[in-house]
C-alpha cells in the first residue's frame, strides 16, 4: 500500500522566507532642525535711526522737532544780528577765560560783561558764524533751519526747500566775498572785517594777489 507523500508545496523552501530588515539608512528622512534647536542669534543693539524714524513718523514727534528747529532758527538770527552791533564790545569777553565771564565768577575789573542779546552763548555763536566764517552773509543760514522746521511741523513748503537751500548757501558765500572786496578796497579791515567774515577776507586776499583789484570781475 502506497505511503502518502508530502505535498510538493510543503517540501519547497520559500526563498527569503525570513523577514527582510528594513533599510533604516535609506528610509530615514532627515527632519529639518526646528527653530528651537537652532542657536539663538544675538539681538542687535537698539538702532537710533529706527527710533528717529518712528519718532518722526508720529505726528507729535514731527511737530515737536519742527517747533524746536524754528526756535533754534530764531535764536540764531537774534544772535547773529546782535553780534553785528555788539561784536567789538563782546570781543574782550570772548577772549577772556570762561571763569571770568560766567555769572557769579570774577570780581572787580576782571568781571567781563556780554552785550549780546543771547548772552555769552550768542556771542560765541556770532563770533564763529559771523566773524570767523561768513560775515553778514550768515544771516541766511537761520532761514534754512526755520523753513526746514516749518516743513517738518506742518508738512507744507512755502518755498521749495532744496532750491532755497542752494540759493541761500550761494548768497551767503557771494555776499561774504563782495563785502570782503570793498573792505579791502576801503582799508576798513578793523571795523569791516565783522561784516565780511574770515572766509570773505581771506579769499579776497588770495584773489587780489592773483588778479589785483580786477578780482571784482570774478566775484561779480
Short description:
The chain is mainly α and 220 residues long.
Explain how this protein is built:
The mean pLDDT is 80. 63% of the residues lie in helices and 0% in strands. The protein starts with 7 loop residues before the first helix and ends with a helix. By secondary structure, it is mainly alpha-helical. The longest helix is centred in the middle third of the chain and has 37 residues, at 59-95. It has nine helices and no strands. It is flat. The chain has helices at residues 8-11, 24-27, 48-57, 59-95, 119-134, 141-154, 161-186, 189-211, 216-219.
Indicate the percent of residues in helices.
55-70%
Strand content is: under 5%
What radius of gyration results from the CA coordinates? Answer: 41 Å
Number of helices: 9
Average per-residue pLDDT, rounded, comes to: 80
Biggest sheet: strands, sense, closure?
none
- Measure the end-to-end span: 143 Å
- The chain-level structural class is mainly alpha
Amino acid at each position: 500500500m502506497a505511503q502518502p507523500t508530502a505535498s510538493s508545496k510543503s517540501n519547497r523552501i520559500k526563498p527569503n522566507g525570513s523577514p527582510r530588515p528594513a533599510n533604516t539608512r535609506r528610509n530615514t528622512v532627515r527632519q529639518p532642525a526646528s527653530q528651537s534647536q537652532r542657536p539663538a542669534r544675538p539681538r542687535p543693539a537698539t538702532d537710533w535711526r529706527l527710533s528717529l524714524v518712528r519718532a518722526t513718523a508720529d505726528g507729535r514727534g514731527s511737530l515737536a522737532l519742527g517747533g524746536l528747529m524754528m526756535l533754534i532758527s530764531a535764536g540764531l538770527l537774534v544772535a547773529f544780528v546782535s553780534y553785528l552791533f555788539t561784536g567789538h564790545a563782546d570781543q574782550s569777553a570772548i577772549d577772556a577765560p570762561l571763569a571770568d565771564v560766567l555769572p557769579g565768577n570774577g570780581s572787580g575789573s576782571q568781571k567781563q560783561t556780554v552785550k549780546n542779546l543771547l548772552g555769552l552763548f550768542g556771542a560765541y555763536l556770532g563770533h564763529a558764524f559771523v566773524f570767523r566764517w561768513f560775515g553778514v552773509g550768515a544771516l541766511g543760514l537761520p532761514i534754512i533751519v526755520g523753513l526746514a522746521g516749518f516743513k517738518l511741523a506742518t508738512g507744507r513748503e512755502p518755498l521749495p526747500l532744496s532750491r532755497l537751500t542752494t540759493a541761500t548757501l550761494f548768497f551767503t558765500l557771494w555776499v561774504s566775498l563782495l563785502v570782503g572786496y570793498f573792505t579791502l578796497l576801503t582799508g576798513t579791515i578793523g571795523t569791516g572785517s565783522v561784516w565780511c567774515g574770515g572766509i570773505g577776507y581771506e579769499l579776497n586776499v588770495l584773489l587780489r594777489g592773483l588778479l589785483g583789484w580786477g578780482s571784482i570781475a570774478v566775484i561779480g
